[in-house]
Amino acid sequence: MPSSSYEQRRGRVTEYFDRTAVKAWERLTSDQPVSGVRATVRAGRAEMRETLLGWLPHDLRGERILDAGCGPGELTGDLVRRGAEVVGIDVSEKLIDLACDRLRDDVEAGRARFAVGDMLDPSLGEFDRVVSMDVLIHYTLDDAVAALSELSGRTRRQLVFTFAPRTPFLAAMHAAGKLFPRSDRSPAIEPVAHARLAEALEAAAALENWQLGRTQRISRGFYTSQALELERLS
User: Fold this and answer.
1) Of 166, 188, 206, 218, which has the fewest beta carbons less than 10 angstroms from its beta carbon?
2) pLDDT tens digits, one per residue of 40-53
């Protein structure tokens, strides 16, 4: 069961996207012009998305994948094009509406399904793989490990996700509690050292049948995030 700190932070993330920044994120995840700061975020996110996709098979036909924290559905669309059946879930109703609009043909064809809610909801069922990009960056180390432990129990093969690596820049951002300028700042990120996260994952009882795989850090201006892979042992 999610902790109270997880639920409190999830509530702040929901408020941020639904009440404050949905227009900014709609623009950021499109080809519309953006400011210099957001251009670096857009470039970093595109590179991270390609990194995560590079860790997945090119042929995903017959696989069911959870896009945990799908936002407006960028990764969902990529996964559908590889043949997967994708469930995209996000706490933001407005971003889910945007995803449904952008991937309307895939939704109508049954290749993609979107839902508003918690990525840890057991009613979502089981998956071959889970992909979660720039979601756990908002949660504490303990809550992130607990979330991955929960997801692992319903995942057959692979978990790929990102976290906020502890760097001087992100430490300063965390101290300020800000990422974007002016009124559409994001909820505070929770930087964590890679070694500390790896140690916590290896010590988690629910992950004893999983092993750490690849990792890759992406830093582009105001965007810094690190991908990490967990693979189920055969």
Assistant:
1) 206
2) 999 999 999 999 99
